[in-house]
Amino acid sequence: MTIISDPHVRAVEATLFASDQPMTVEQIRGYVGDDVDIADALAQLEAHYAGRGIELVRRGKSWHFQTAADLAYVLRREREESRKLSRAAVETLAIIAYHEPVSRAEIEAIRGVQISKGTLDVLMEAGWVRPAGRRDVPGRPLIYATTAGFLAHFGLSSRKDLPGIDDLKAAGLLDPIDTAMGDMHFAGEESDSELEIDENNA
Question: Of 5, 10, 13, 191, which is the most exposed, with the fewest CB atoms less than 10 Å away?
């Protein structure tokens, strides 16, 4: 078995292993110092752990260790969900993911119906959606974006990994009502205001 001997790489490894939250490069640098080539260390660690029981993965701008995807069932505990996401919550989450940052009014315009405050509250409580500032227009409405937790939960490295509408149709995940939402630019293109995962949500 290959042993990592580079002290800088080991320092980055130890920092990530000890953290209970994904860490950005800047956060890692705060522990290991400016003289460490963190990008190179992460690349070495990613290769070193590839195919093992735990892997080093990137989610958005953050890195963390996690159980290998094919072994997740070993550690999974059966538990009763207190509640499932409503269709309104699922649609709202999809709209935010594909169009972020978006305001409540923009979400309602796409869905064609009003959404309750509780719908956004559920998504924020789940850690998948966060307030992302205010739109610079009259009234300065609050806008929403997805979080690093959203990427991690759905196994995405970035929003570019979101499936396109053709992929969703092929998988049978769209019914006729959903298909009517095809004008939403569901291709998952990044907006000019690309989501920046702030360190508080990293």
Answer: 5
